[in-house]
Amino acid sequence: xxxxxxxxxxxxxxxxxxxxxxxxxxxxxxxxxxxxxxxxxxxxxxxxxxxxxxxxxxxxxxxxxxxxxxxxxxxxxxxxxxxxxxxxxxxxxxxxxxxxxxxxxxxxxxxxxxxxxxxxxxxxxxxxxxxxxxxxxxxxxxxxxxxxxxxxxxxxxxxxxxxxxxxxxxxxxxxxxxxxxxxxxxxxxxxxxxxxxxxxxxxxxxxxxxxxxxxxxxxxxxxxxxxxxxxxxxxxxxxxxxxxxxxxxxxxxxxxxxxxxxxxxxxxxxxxxxxxxxxxxxxxxxxxxxxxxxxxxxxxx
Length: 301
What we know:
The protein is α+β, with helices and mostly antiparallel strands. The chain contains 7 helices and 20 strands. It has a 9-stranded mixed β-sheet. Strands 10-11-18-14-13 form a 5-stranded mixed beta barrel, surrounded by 4 helices. Strand 10 and strand 11 (121-126) form a beta hairpin. The longest helix has 19 residues, at 87-105.
């Protein structure tokens, strides 16, 4: 059976059912997902590490004991399930690093970021794992600012040079203490991402913003051993550094594509977008009210 979905502006046909994605009527699609055997290795490898191989036309990601993912020509993905009982985890990896890689290879500056809609404009929260981007987005979502995307934000410019991001799919991944602190009531639809930790998937079908949205501000979140919360507006050269650091596949794309093209994309977006660096003490959780105050002030300024 073939299922049809939409995410990040792509129309998708899939042999694997995704309860997380928004369904659409059967149509001509941008991306085809099939279940089957993936290659053991790629020919003419231009980038590789312990889990990944890539060249101009192909991308292979292997997740031990879960699934292998093979992207061909940025329009076809083969998923090889290694454990039928781990379909939920296989989907989670696809909806995270695999989709992030696909979007980056399709030409988007794809950021490790969550995004909310504030008065018709997108506000992004970027950062490494544990920096608090999902929790921060969830805090503002509880204040009435709809989620645009969680963990992945593809950035592009329109014909007028305006910077936009595409909507993802209606769910967030949150730690149990964040769910409790933010007053979110868990339901039977909340599922543990991995049984050995306390991170849950939270559906958001009723408060999800589904449309492309112009980007107004980007916040780069990080932690430090220092004791003070630091808040800094970034200059263009600083923006470029942080955009590169938070982009999916920046090292891969520099290996298989022209560096000048990548640099032009990043510098153009940096010049048009207001960016901030927020550094919180590692001892201070991102669910602390004092942490949100300067962010909210900057958002509404």
